[in-house]
Every structure is written in structure tokens, then in C-alpha cells.
Amino acid sequence: MTVSNEERTTAPTKGLGEHSHGGPVIPEASRAERFASFDVEAFEKPTGREEDWRFTPMRRLRGLHDGTAPATGAATVEVTAAPEVRVETVERGDERLGVAGTPGDRVAAQAWSAFGSATVVTVPKDTKASGPTTLVVTGPGEGNTAYGHVQVRAEAFGEAVVVLDHRGSGAYADNVEFVLGDGAQLTVVAIQDWADDAVHVSAHHARIGRDAVLKHTVVTLGGDLVRISPTATFTDRGGDVDMQGLYFADAGQHLEHRLFVDHSVPNCRSNVTYKGALQGEGAHTVWIGDVLIRAAAEATDTFELNRNLVLTDGARADSVPNLEIETGEIEGAGHASATGRFDDEQLFYLQARGIPTEQARRLVVRGFFGEVLQKISVPEVRERLEKAIEAELEAVGA
């Protein structure tokens, strides 16, 4: 059975109900009114009853949310940069830090107040990087906690591809900033390929300038608990954001992605496509997609899509798209969400042409993820992820 919600509108609509397995949920407040601060003490300690935390297993956060997890280790950041790109390690007082966005929850504020130094990657003005830049972030080790900060800056008309590759063990919370100048083009692939014990809570803040283009892809495969919260904010007309995501949860894993696209200026576009698969007892994925179109954001065009494929019994996917519109002068806005098992018609089609059931099931899953994988422009990264998904399918016997 597939549970699906789809809606597209060009009419003014405010506070549309959320969707989770087809059931309505009353939003806590408008995203325009959500609190943000760099001061960790300005946030109350979350209990899990708050709207922002109601899906997250708080006991598994290892104290990242309540101040009981001081840094006991450090994550390492190894950078392999394109020759045109500048890489710096800066102290927390650097005036460039924090310009992309303000922490919107206590963990992000804790990470802001606790990191020691930050890695800043800069694509100079009018420069196209000749190859990808890769940052490998390795956790502090099993039983340890660390906090971090990364900023990627694409100056006016700069163009680059950046890969953030997370791996290793331990608990890690960080803020990642993407600052795009006018006319810049930045492609980001953020990979969470943690060890089984790892906990990672990360806030991504994107600030998009006039006519700038951000292609942002999140791939989450490993870790005990991973919660990624990307936020995109437009600062001038003509901005374009394409947010893609792929996740595959195994038994006991909790993988959570919470997106917010803030359309506050006219003539901007956003498109969101996230796809996930789940297998094994206790596998749990959460996808929250919030889009706010403010009164001044005329001629906005936006759409968000989430699809989840449940491969075994005992797995659960929560999908909650939210669309809040404060003006009727838009090009279009909508969302779609569906959670279900294999498409019987696709399986029948393949089996009718002589393809064995097991192979047919694998082909369906590969095709399900293909839309996201094909948009990853770094061949070696795409091939690595394809192999990782194949390994997941072998584990479940699909």
C-alpha cells in the first residue's frame, strides 16, 4: 500500500496542514515566527514534545541538546582543494562566520558556541574551479564528542563543486554555511557515511545572492542517529535552489532531514526532491519540508517532493511537507509525499519479460534512486554511492 499526498496551488494559502502518513498535524507556528539565536542559553532545553523535536529520539542525542555533552575530542577536516580555491583555518572571531544564517535550535547554537576553529573554503570572484574540492570530516572517535564549523564561500560569478564527506565514530554537531555572491554557482554534495555508533546533528545555512544557483545534495547512509537541517534564504531576485536528498536506513537507524526554504524576495525558484528507503526492525526516517513564501516574494516558483520505499516490516517513514503562502502573486507552489512498498506493476512488468523476482526488485530500487544519483556531477562519488546502495540491497536480499 502506498500513502500519498500531493498538492499544487497558485492561490494564496497559509498554514496548510502537515502530512505524515496521510494524517494532518497542526503546525506549532509559522516558520516566519520561529526563534533563532547564536546564544545557546536563549533556547530552552528540548524535551521531545516540541514540534521541532517530536520525531527525534532524544535519549540517543548523547547530550548534544541539553548541555551535558562538553567537547571531549576533536573532529579532523582534511581538504583536497581545486587549485583555484582558497582554504583557510580561522578562529571563531572571524567576521565572515555566521553570515549565512542564525542557529534555529539549541544543538546548532551549542555547536556555534563550542567549536574551536572553522574551515573556510573560498571560490574567488569570476573563477570557475577546474575540479571538485573535497572536505573529509572524521568524527572524534567512539565515546567522544566534538563540535565543528565549515563555511563555503562562492564570490560573485564564482563556480565550484564541493563534497563534504563525513565518516568515523563519535558524537558530532556542527554548522555548515554556504554563502553565494551574485551570479555564483555552487554544487554541494554532503555525504553522511558514519560508523554504526555515530551521532551527527548538523545545520546547513545557505544564503543565495542575486541570480545565484545552489545545487545542494544530501546523502545519508551511516550512523546511529543523523539529523540534518538545511535552510535556504534568498537575498535578492533571480536566486535558484535545487535541493536533492537520498537516504537508506537499516535496522535501528534514525535518519532525519528537516528542510526550510525561505522565499522572502521576488522572482526566485526552489525545487526539493528527497528519496529514502528503509529496511529492518526499528529503521526510522523523518523528512520535514517547510517552504515559506512571504508577502514580498511575488513570482515565486517552488515545489517539494518526498518519496519513501519501505522494503521490510518493522520500518517506519514519517513525511511532513508544509507550504505557507502569504501572497497570491506567485508562479506556482506545491508539494507531494508518498510512502509505500514495491510497485507491484513495475515488478510484474519486469517479471513478465523473464527477469527473476530478486533481480527485478533490485532494478526497481535502483531506478527509484536513479533520479537523485544522476544529478551528482562527480563520477567517483556517484559510483561510490551506487556501490553502497547495492551493498544495502544485498543485506536485505532485495
TrEMBL record:
InterPro entries named in the record: Fe-S_cluster_assembly_SufBD (IPR055346), SUF_FeS_clus_asmbl_SufBD_core (IPR000825), SUF_FeS_clus_asmbl_SufBD_sf (IPR037284), SUF_FeS_clus_asmbl_SufD (IPR011542)
Q: Which residues form the SUF system FeS cluster assembly SufBD core domain?
A: 141-368
> SUPFAM superfamilies annotated for this entry?
Stabilizer of iron transporter SufD
Q: What's a GO biological-process term for it? A: iron-sulfur cluster assembly
Region Disordered, annotated ranges: 1-27
The record's comment on protein family reads: Belongs to the iron-sulfur cluster assembly SufBD family.
Output the NCBIfam families linked to this UniProt entry.
sufD (TIGR01981)
Q: What is this protein called?
A: Iron-regulated ABC transporter permease protein SufD
